[in-house]
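Supplementary notes for students who missed Thursday's class. We covered one full example, reproduced here. Read the sequence, then the structure, then the short commentary at the end.
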Amino acid sequence: MKFKVNEGPADRIVRAVIAVGLVIGGIFSTGVLQVVLIAAGAVLGVTAITGFCGLYALLGINTCSTKS
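Structure (token representation):
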């Protein structure tokens, strides 16, 4: 199943940077906070790589300037 890209390049870069920060923060945390930070970082990382955000799709947001 192929999803329509709805994230622009700047949005994807910001998500990737935040994802790395969250995962690093999770590595240095413990307990529930560690799990939450790593999970949030993983979600942002996947959306940055794929260019598709499910929440954007639900809300009708599209930051991608090209049609795909």
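Commentary. DSSP finds three helices and no strands in the chain. The chain has a mean pLDDT of 92. If anything here is unclear, bring it to office hours.
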